[in-house]
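From: lab user (bench 3)
To: helpdesk
Subject: output format question, protein + guanosine-5'-diphosphate

Hello, I'm new to running complex predictions and I'm not sure whether the block I got back is the full result or only part of it. Here's what I submitted:
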Amino acid sequence: MQVKSAEFVMSNSDVAKCPNNRLPEYAFIGRSNVGKSSLINMLTNKKSLAKTSGRPGKTQLINHFLINKNWYLVDLPGYGYAKVSKSSKKTFQKFITQYFKLREQLVSAFVLVDIRHNPQPIDLEFMQWLGEQAVPFSIIFTKADKLKPNAINNHVEAYKSILLETWEEVPNYFITSSSKDMGKEDVLEYIENLNNNMDLE
Ligand code: GDP
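Helpdesk reply: Thanks, we reran it on our side. This is the complete output you should expect:
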């Protein structure tokens, strides 16, 4: 898929106020600093559609971007940032859980994880929770340029074996690097296929 247009639509913290025109949408979420803004900018060919983080934990809203006028890319707040206060953590949890529970037009989530790190409990728990809510998701490994090809393989295999302790199958996954434009086509093609399949339904 070629991304020909990408426009910011709205930011809000209330799922009821999200766009209601029923276009399919895909949500991107992960720990603060995982490289989510950079990935969104890579996917949309824009330098600063999603703001790359000066201060992690700052963008605490549901952000809708309209892509090619026919689907939404949703930038969700980063989780797991220690310096966010307890009360704002609670608010965050509430509207994000509401988003995943209520958003019928959500086709799939993408959970971003830094390929260099060992599987983190917060990410594994979040994936578990998505599974319990029956929300389809894929994993996007970010910052693959930071590892040599062999190490990429080893890290992915290690991640898979941890996942297989709780999952029957390894979720779909992508290996990406925003600084090297890697994995872009794979993610966009995946979204395009899902969009096309929905047209057939
Ligand atoms: P966010 O907080 O998840 O939105 O993360 P950002 O996109 O703001 O990125 C966090 C930091 O990681 C920034 O310093 C980025 O330059 C860096 N970063 C993001 N993606 C990549 C990548 O693919 N490769 C490398 N080497 N650095 C990256």
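A quick orientation on your result: Helices lie at 36-44, 86-102, 121-132, 149-163, 184-200. Let us know if anything else is unclear.
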